[in-house]
Design brief:
Blueprint lengths: L1 E4 L2 E4 L16 H5 L2 E2 L32 E4 L7 E4 L9 H6 L3 H7 L2 E4 L4 H4 L34 E3 L2 E5 L4 E5 L14 E3 L16 H14 L1
Parallel strand pairs: 3-4
Antiparallel strand pairs: 1-2, 4-5, 6-7, 6-10, 8-9
């Protein structure tokens, strides 16, 4: 229990566990050995009515001490990561974009994601994949008619790829804003905008003409 914190009289905190969110879970035998998973990858944003913050920070007041756990990625790679209790992991959206093959980069730079209204509530009955990234497509999402009151004008649509500027190097970098494991709506809410490019095979052009012009205009203003 937490009392008299930032305007809250009291609050009961509950440590999240992947068994409450993942469709498939680690065995009890592995869990007894300290094996766990990443609960869910996300950014801290409402993704309905309010836009994500431009800057976020994380400050640890008390760092738990004790036995370490072993995080299994369970994505088919066999990768594991020893971590202390209470670990918060971070990933680089820039690296995620950089390692994509050219054809997927081309799709990413011209694709937008439209979020469901109240996406956290909408996806709450569904279950995440074993890597904590993405929702299993089992049709368990809450019907829109059962959500709290919402307006289509308040739904959020964001590009899959954003722009990041390094002023000291005067260069443009692309990165993938990292949305949550289960908070990305289903595939029907991905909208690709394929723009004509100066190539016979426009699907393989990384910067469609319109995107390149916009990027160069932004660079011209900043430099």
């Amino acid at each position: 229990m937490v009392y008299s914190h930032e305007g809250l009289a009291e609050a009961r905190l509950k440590h999240p566990h992947h068994k409450a969110f993942h469709k498939n879970v680690v065995s009890q035998e592995d869990e007894d050995k300290g094996v766990t998973r990443f609960y869910g990858w996300h950014i801290d944003a409402a993704l309905y009515n309010l836009s994500p913050p431009k800057v976020m920070t994380l400050y640890a007041v008390n760092v738990p001490q004790g036995l370490k756990q072993i995080v299994k990625y369970d994505d088919g790679s066999g990768d594991e990561l020893p971590v202390p209790l209470g670990t918060t992991a971070f990933v680089s959206g820039r690296t995620m974009f950089d390692i994509l093959p050219p054809e997927l980069k081309s799709i990413a730079v011209r694709t937008q994601v439209k979020y469901a209204p109240h996406p956290y509530v909408w996806m709450s009955p569904a279950r995440a994949g074993s890597a904590g990234l993405g929702i299993e497509s089992d049709g368990l999402e809450m019907p829109l008619s059962e959500l709290p009151p919402w307006e289509e004008s308040r739904q959020k649509t964001y590009p899959v790829v954003g722009l990041s500027f390094y002023f000291n190097l005067c260069m443009l970098r692309l990165f993938c804003p990292f949305h949550s494991s289960g908070r990305i709506p289903s595939r029907r809410n991905y909208h690709s905008k394929f723009i004509l490019a100066e190539s016979r095979n426009s699907s393989l052009v990384l910067f469609p003409r319109d995107h390149l012009v916009k990027a160069l205009c932004i660079l011209a203003v900043l430099t």
